[in-house]
Structure formats: C-alpha cells, structure tokens
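Annual report, structural modelling task.

Input specification for the magnesium ion complex:
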Amino acid sequence: GLKEIRKHLVQTPLQNDLEDLCPIRQKILVVDDSPLNTKIMEAALIEDYEVLISHNGKEALSICNSNDPPDLILLDIIMPEIDGYEICRRLNRGAKTKDIPVIFLTSLTAAKDIEFGLTLGAIDYITKPFSIPIIKAKIKNHLAVKYYQDTLKINTDVDQLTQIANRRRFDDTMTLEIKKAKRTGTILSVLLLDIDHFKFYNDTYGHLEGDTCLKKVATALSATLKRPKDLAARWGGEEFVCLLPNTNTKGAQNVAEALREAIQNLSIPHESSPVNEVVTVSVGVVSSNPMDENSFDNLLRQADEALYQAKETGRNRIAV
Ligand code: GH3
Ligand code: MG
Ligand code: MG
Ligand code: MG
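The model returned the following structure:
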C-alpha cells in the first residue's frame, strides 16, 4: 500500500529498472467462493506476494476499505450474495478503493461477459481454465504499473523534504472542506505558521541544518494534531499551514497554542534568534463564518494578516 511505498521512498530513491520497480512485498486479495480455487492461487502467488483470501464479497469489500488495502484483487464473478460484478462496481464508487486494480478470474467466457467486466473498470479479464504462468506474468505487469502510479501519487501530494502534505494536497483538501462546511453549516479553521527568524538560523547553522530543522518542525506539527481530519502541510519555504475542519475559533486557538508550545519544546537551539534561545513559530488563526462567503483566498488572506500581527507583536505567539 501507499504507506509501505512512502517508507521505502524515504529510504531509497526510485529505480528505473523494471525488476527493481516493486521493491516492496505487494499484497494481493484473492476473492472466490470456491476454497479449492483460492488454494490454487495462494500456492501460485505466495512466493512473490502477500496473499489475502476471501470467500465472500462482503468480507472482500471490508478488506479493501480497511487502512491496509490490497494492491490488486483477483475477483471471481459467480458467487452467492454479492457477485464479482457488483463488488467491482462498489470498489469503483468508493474514493478509497477506486484505484485498486481488479482482475476478473472467471468461468464466464462469453464475449458479452468479458466486455461487461472490462466496462466496469477491471484492468483485465482471465477465463478459467487458466495458465498459472500467464496469470503470474499479468499480475506482475499490472502491479508494476500500480506501484508506479502510487509513487507518482505520493510525489504529487507529499512535500519531498518534510514528508508531510504539500501545498497541492492542502489546496485540494481545503477546497473540499470549504464546500463541506457550507453544506453542513459547520465552522472550519486555518492556521498559518511561520518560523521566527529562520534567515538568522540558516545564517548561523547553514542550510543543511536549516533543512533538518524544517523536518523536525513539520513532524512535530503533524504529530501534535489530534483529529484524523486535521491536516498539516508545508505551505512553502519555512511556512506551514494547518486545516482544522469542524473547529471554531476557540478550538483553533487551543490547537494553535499547542502547536506553538510543541515547537518551542523541541528545544532546537537558535542562538541568533532575538526572540528565544530555541526555534519558535508565530501562528495566524482564522475561522470561517457560516454567514460569509468564506472563499479560499479570503480565509488565507485573513490568516496571513493574523500571522503578521503575531510577528509584529513579538513573535513566538498566536494571533486571531
Ligand atoms: P520572520 O521571523 O519575520 O519570519 O523572519 P524570517 O527570517 O524567518 O523570515 P524570512 O521570510 O525573511 O526568511 C525566511 C527564510 O527561510 C529565508 C530562506 O532562506 C529560508 N528558507 C526557505 N525555504 C527553505 C528551505 O527549504 N531550507 C532552508 N534551509 N531554508 C529555507
Ligand atoms: Mg464462483
Ligand atoms: Mg516566511
Ligand atoms: Mg519566518
């Protein structure tokens, strides 16, 4: 899954060689109501992949919706209760599951069945009786593409240096959350954080130490946010932004103060800072008003104004 790849990307740069393209052990879910069929596939795949087995559609769907979804699904069509077509349809409808490749593995060999399976979004359709070596070769190719897609996805929404969300991911999430807040009549808050006198920090300790400091600050911000919907992102340079859905000004102030304190408690020495002997941040806080337009740009502009206030009134503090 994405988590595994992310870990790997941090450790080693991506290789171009196809053999090295899937350096992690990928996970395949085999769904078939016949235990004999799943045994055959498990035996064929277990050497190269982690194999999950499911004999019914409901269970298969819940595995795919878990926090540790498979990288590929081999899916039988004719099964009691939910059939393979319906499983494929539901996977494609779910935001979490729509990118999991599905290969149908079925005794339905009519052209219209094959066509139907493929129009539902399956990447391949294999008919029984099948050749194990051909299935293995197809799976390998499809998983290489999946790995490449996952890698691209991580690179588009994760900041390379700090490994937290990047600005693009923040923009997308914020756009969605503003809509949601309007629809549900809830308040969302945004925090804009800027490291105090970071230019002096670089001047004193060098850019490499500066980068290390940015990583520590980013990690601390992410770790300090408590709710699963909260998002910490790198806005650019030494500025960070936090999105707090369903959080009013009072709540946002508490979070901002907790973040400010968490950064100060990292105790990263900053001997040239006029504010404090350790690295600190200033934080601008803004909350949406259910009565207002609350455009993306408006909220960010207000957060920026609040941040400016925090800087002007002494730094290492929050302002609303
Ligand atoms: P203030 O308290 O007013 O925010 O002062 P400041 O020095 O932090 O503000 P300023 O915006 O003038 O400086 C930001 C510095 O952050 C300048 C730039 O060299 C540094 N910086 C931005 N991005 C990076 C980065 O990726 N790595 C490192 N090491 N430094 C960076
Ligand atoms: Mg069956
Ligand atoms: Mg700045
Ligand atoms: Mg700064």
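Residues 194-196, 198, 238 surround magnesium ion (ligand 4) (CB under 6 Å).
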